[in-house]
Specification:
single chain, 104 residues, 75% helix
Length: 104
């Protein structure tokens, strides 16, 4: 299921369906939200990135910037995770960073 949700998140980002991207990773994060593992924290950060993009889309720039700071806070966990999806997370992070440049 993890790979499917990661792929869904990436597809939604490419299509600028940010709310749906958020929902894709929420399905992974929510059942594990009480864990403090680096992978769960990184997923939380990626969800925040999607929320930030959705806020930009809705013209709510100040709120978007606040949520983006949450992404930045959790992005550091990318370098601390041990996951079979590590390469996927690196790619998602690159995709998010490129999209942020495009949208800002």
């Amino acid at each position: 299921m993890t790979q499917i949700k990661i792929d869904e998140f990436a597809k939604c980002l490419r299509e600028e369906r940010f709310y749906d991207a958020h929902e894709a990773l929420e399905a992974l994060w929510f059942p594990r939200r009480s864990e403090k593992s680096a992978e769960v924290m990184l997923i939380k950060g990626l969800i925040n990135a999607a929320v930030s993009f959705e806020l930009i889309k809705r013209g709510r720039i100040p709120q978007s910037k606040k949520v983006w700071q949450n992404y930045l806070k959790y992005r550091q966990f990318l370098f601390k995770i041990d996951s079979p999806y590590l390469n996927d997370y690196y790619q998602l992070s690159r995709d998010v960073e490129l999209l942020a440049q495009k949208l800002n």
